[in-house]
Design a protein that fits this description.
The complex is a heterodimer of chains A (323) and B (259).
Chain A (H helix, E strand, L loop, with lengths): L2 E5 L2 E2 L2 E2 L3 H11 L1 E8 L4 H10 L4 E6 L9 H14 L2 E7 L2 H14 L2 E12 L2 E8 L4 E7 L4 E5 L14 E5 L10 E7 L14 E5 L10 H10 L2 E4 L1 H5 L20 E5 L5 H4 L7 E6 L12 E4 L2 H16 L1
Parallel strand pairs in A: 1-4, 1-6, 4-5, 5-11, 6-10, 7-10, 13-14, 13-15, 15-16, 16-17
Antiparallel strand pairs in A: 2-3, 7-8, 8-9
Chain B lengths: L1 E6 L1 E3 L20 E3 L1 H16 L4 E7 L5 H10 L3 E5 L9 H12 L6 E5 L10 H9 L2 E12 L2 E8 L2 E8 L2 E5 L11 H9 L2 E4 L1 H4 L13 E8 L7 E4 L4 H11 L4
Parallel strand pairs in B: 1-4, 1-6, 4-5, 5-11, 6-10, 7-10
Antiparallel strand pairs in B: 2-3, 7-8, 8-9
């Protein structure tokens, strides 16, 4: 059976949470093989956890530069793995910024068909079918590669289930031949999920705050509601621009696209650019003082009122039901 | 320093954006504008130019004849000249084909620095910058929210999903910028008048040396099988707060088994 290569993102030296999902998608299309770039001496432990997640083969590129070069080591490792694997029916990576860029460069290097931000992959009679969303979920597009190996980035939280455990047999890759000019990472400033909250991309419930909150201090109300619901925290661009919260919390056209079961918009007017990032949520709730806000056009339940009285009451009611 | 900045004409995000059911491609018949991220990319290029006297900024786009307006806007902001990649044979290009055409247009220029937006608002593939770095053999510094070019060293803060990285490379390099990079300046009257006289070179398939059997929708790397519009949401329940809306909302969530 042809190999399906999966690029493994590492978080604190371990396979990132998204890895299992990528291997499940790979198992639908062929024999899953993981590709990982890591510091020397860590391969055995990583390979055994990747085997448990369903990787039959683990291609390991050990590199002292693993942590200090931007994207290029991953491209070189994927390329080397494609050459070493023999028959490859697809390459699947997560849709993180790093992995997607590695995939884009690999597609150029191997003349593959790059398919970005897939929300589903299936084996079809005419080839691998990739489902994507356009314009923030306004359209669903199904496509297949016309030529070349499909190189697919898969949106986090798209595929359910687990793949059966496999051998996780290590095959070493040599990256010495790689001549790509790269950029150097001189420092990392990343939060390693210190927060108890679920991640925005995969959360079942998302509570987002907008300009209606009025200040960074008052934005805490959004976080309190999120915590009462076990939800992730998001924000509109207006709230981010006003400095109420971090930029990576931005939901919308130029931020994260979310499709949770429940999306609660607090003090967000719902400009078309915001709706492009959340309109595919299953249930949408909006709280806003302006009855003419466009967010109410997409809301399943809307409250026209002062968020500073409605939200605390909602938090109390949620807590009362939970206890 | 020779700087190239890439811009793209896109359907206005304030309008109703559609995929054409017959061509299965983005419908570009409505209002089209220079993508907002590209006004910021041009600003970033102009800031580098101002910090490095003697630099020249070339604005580059690929698109139909209407895309000349996006070039003129960048020229009015202060870019020096333009390259317009335009050919009927390029219509329907995917990211692989677009990056190949842009690479062919950029290669002869010998640019020290290529600046792009991190992703367009229409395709949102966010792949062309990385593909261009690969094709042109440039150091890739993408998703930068800050940018500094001193001597032949480029540094900046790269956004990631969990924070940011400090990155550094030597020129020549390709940079993509996020919307935090800078607020774009408004072109003034003098700039708009001057832009009309600035030189814009048009390049078609023949000039780029691209074979027709590699380009356009018919030779795209992927085939779209199906496009389905999302059904419109049916009207929800909207209540005016009478002092109990928070409790009503909790009831709604409980009934829907969401809490």
């Amino acid at each position: 059976m042809a190999h399906v290569l999966v690029l493994v993102d590492l978080a604190n030296g371990r396979p990132a949470a998204s890895t299992g999902e990528l291997l499940v998608a790979a198992a639908r299309l062929g024999e899953p093989a993981a590709v990982v770039v890591t510091e020397p001496g860590t391969a055995a432990e990583i390979a055994s956890s990747l085997g448990a997640l369903g990787a039959a083969t683990v291609f390991v590129a050990s590199s002292a530069d693993a942590d200090s070069r931007l994207v290029t080591p991953q491209v070189a490792a994927l390329h080397a793995a494609v050459l070493a694997a023999g028959e490859v029916s697809a390459v699947i990576v997560g849709n993180s910024i790093d992995s997607r860029e590695a995939a884009a460069r690999l597609a150029v290097r191997i003349d593959g068909a790059f398919q970005s931000d897939a929300v589903d992959v299936t084996a079809g009679a005419a080839g691998i079918l990739v489902t994507q969303q356009a314009f923030g979920g306004s359209f669903t597009v199904t496509a297949r590669a016309a030529r070349g190996i499909p190189v697919i980035s898969l949106r986090q939280g798209s595929v359910d289930g687990t793949a059966p455990a496999a051998a996780g047999t290590i095959r070493e890759l040599d990256l010495d031949a790689d001549t790509a000019v790269g950029a150097e990472i001189t420092a990392r400033h990343e939060q390693t999920q210190a927060s108890e909250r679920p991640s925005l991309q995969t959360a079942d419930i998302v509570v987002s705050g907008g300009r209606g909150l009025g200040s960074r201090e008052k934005f805490v109300l959004v976080e309190e509601l999120a915590d009462a619901l076990g939800a992730a925290v998001g924000a509109s661009r207006a709230a981010v621009d006003a400095g109420y919260c971090e930029h990576n919390m931005q939901v919308g056209q130029t931020g994260v696209t979310v499709s949770p079961n429940l999306y609660i918009a607090v003090g967000i007017s719902g400009a078309i650019q915001h709706r492009a990032g959340m309109q595919s949520a299953k249930t949408i709730v909006a709280i806003n003082k302006d009855a003419d806000s466009p967010i109410f056009d997409v809301a399943d339940f809307g409250v026209v009122g002062d968020l500073f009285t409605v939200v605390p009451q909602l938090i109390e009611a949620v807590k009362a039901r939970k206890s | 320093m020779k700087i190239a900045v890439l811009v793209k004409e896109v359907p206005d995000t304030w309008g109703d954006r559609r995929i054409d059911a017959s061509t299965k491609r983005v419908d570009r018949k409505g209002e089209v504008v220079i993508d907002e991220i590209n006004e910021k990319s041009v600003e970033a290029a102009l800031l580098v130019k101002e910090a490095n006297p003697g630099s020249e900024v070339t604005v580059v786009t690929m698109g139909p004849s209407s895309a000349l307006a996006a070039i003129r806007k960048a020229l009015a902001m202060g870019a020096d000249n333009g390259i317009h990649v335009v050919d009927d044979g390029l219509v329907g290009s995917d990211a692989m084909q677009t990056s190949a055409a842009l690479a062919a247009a950029l290669r002869p220029g010998g640019f020290d620095l290529v600046i792009t937006g991190n992703e367009s608002t229409d395709g949102r593939t966010a792949a062309v910058p990385a593909m261009l770095a690969e094709r042109l053999g440039l150091a890739q510094l993408t998703f930068l929210r800050t940018l500094d070019v001193t001597g032949d060293v480029v540094t900046g803060e790269r956004m990631t999903d969990d924070g940011h990285l400090d990155v550094r490379a030597s020129l020549p390099a390709l940079v993509s910028v996020t919307e935090q990079i800078a607020e774009a300046r408004f072109p003034n009257f003098r700039g708009i008048m001057a832009a009309k006289k600035k030189k814009v070179e048009s390049l078609g398939l023949a000039a780029l040396g691209l074979p027709a059997e590699e380009t356009g929708a018919a030779n795209s790397w992927s085939v779209v099988e199906d496009v389905t519009p999302r059904p419109a949401r049916s009207g929800g329940t909207i209540v005016k707060d009478d002092g109990t809306a928070g409790t009503q909302l909790a009831d709604f969530l409980a009934q829907a088994k969401l809490i």
